[in-house]
Amino acid sequence: MIPLFTRQIQDVAELEPFVKDLWSLRSQKTVWLLQGDVGAGKTETVKTLAKVLQMAEVASPSFAVHHRYLTAEDFPIEHLDLYRLESEDDLESTGFWDLFSEPEGLIIIEWADRLNVQYLPRDWTLFRLEYKVVGETQREIRVETQAAL
């Protein structure tokens, strides 16, 4: 992965400009791989994206594993949470791999460190977002990609 940038977030309100910047980097087929401790801001990032795109309220798919959303322009956003998966075999039963047959979309994967990203299709642009808690409300988010933009 190639480092793109690191962003210091002082509170949840500062996620909006970060998400707008990240959204502007997307391609027709994009994957956001979110990694970090519990409470680091992964789900808040997805909620902020929904707010920026004026979509319905989103929730963590911790128990459902997968939620699908559409933007006003019908651009699909697939939101997955792999926290409860015990193995990659569990992923097979969710229909996860079928998501990559779509002609366009954004796939957001929370707890992406539980997935071997080497098996993801090469025609999708990957962004790894690593969240680090640096204070009560402060976060550091490092963004990397697999190819130069």
Could you walk me through the main structural features you see in this protein, from its secondary elements to its overall organization?
This protein has 149 residues and is an alpha/beta fold. The chain has a single domain, classed as P-loop containing nucleotide triphosphate hydrolases (Rossmann fold, 3-Layer(aba) Sandwich), CATH 3.40.50. It has 3 helices and 7 strands. A 7-stranded mixed beta sheet has the order 1-7-6-2-5-4-3, covered by helices on one side. Helix 1 crosses helix 2. The longest helix is centred in the N-terminal third of the chain and has 11 residues. The protein is globular, with a radius of gyration of 14 Å. The mean pLDDT is 89.
Approximate shape: globular
Class from secondary-structure proportions:
alpha/beta
- Rounded to an integer, what's the Rg over CA atoms? 14 Å
Approximately how much helix is present in the residues?
Answer: 10-25%
Describe the strand arrangement of the main beta sheet, using strand numbers. 1-7-6-2-5-4-3
What is the level 1 CATH name? Alpha Beta
| Beta-strand residue fraction | 25-35%
Major sheet attributes: 7 strands, mixed
Mean pLDDT across all amino acids: 89
Question: How far apart are the termini?
Answer: 12 Å
CATH fold-level assignment: Rossmann fold
The helix/strand order is EHEHEEHEEE
Write down how many β-strands occur, each being a DSSP E stretch of 2 or more residues. Answer: 7
How many domain modules?
1
- CATH homologous superfamily classification: P-loop containing nucleotide triphosphate hydrolases
Instruction: Show unreliable segments.
Output: none
The count of helical stretches stands at 3
CATH architecture: 3-Layer(aba) Sandwich
